[in-house]
Amino acid sequence: MDFPALHAWDLSPREAVALQRRLAAQVVVADRLPARINRVAGVDVSYEKHGRIFFAAVSVLSFPDLEPLAEATARGHSEFPYIPGLLSFRELPLVLQAFQRLAQAPEVILVDGQGIAHPRRLGLASHLGLWLGVPTVGCAKSRLCGEHVAPGTEKGAATPLRDGEDVIGTVLTTRTGTKPLYVSPGHLVDQRRAVEITLACCRRFRQPEPTRRAHHLSNQLRRSTPTPPEDR
DNA sequence: GCGACAG
DNA sequence: ATCTTGTCGC
Fold it and tell me: CA of A146 vs C1' of B1, distance in Å?
């Protein structure tokens, strides 16, 4: 697929925060999904144990059947450290490389991380959606910010994730008896659609099929990659 | 200053 | 995210 090329991204954490504030204003939290959704993609990144090499994977499934259609991966590294709230500056470059290798763009993308449920409303899912110009949904396994009461334990149970006056996400039980997921709009989708798509992608596991497959893909890529020699 | 803190 | 064996439960 085609989208703006990735320039050199050597920003300091402080500059990254400033950029997030500017980009957040461009995020569209509204239902702009096409009438017919045929392809859903999931993204995930795994790291080598010493954090030397990153492995990004994208898995595309048919919708609503969820049958595998295509996949793409990318190997690389990042100098940017993991800082809560600045995850996209660490992972996005490699994730974009993986998407660059996809022949066809999906109608929506599920991301292993937050969408607007972020201090500055620009989690990894929102940043990715903005860059690709494709609708995205954040499906994080844990909370970054916001408050909420626990949802019921039945699949489909949900409670709002709030940050002051704003509803920034939905704490959603995606499988009966398991810990809920933190679902939030990434870009071009609203709260309702974010939850709808996520539930439609959950079969027998807590994680939606797209991100679950991407997770396995990036893991097997890491396991099949020899660890390069140390430098000291 | 202290606690929280996606992956 | 990653380091890790067995183990409890559907």
Answer: 23
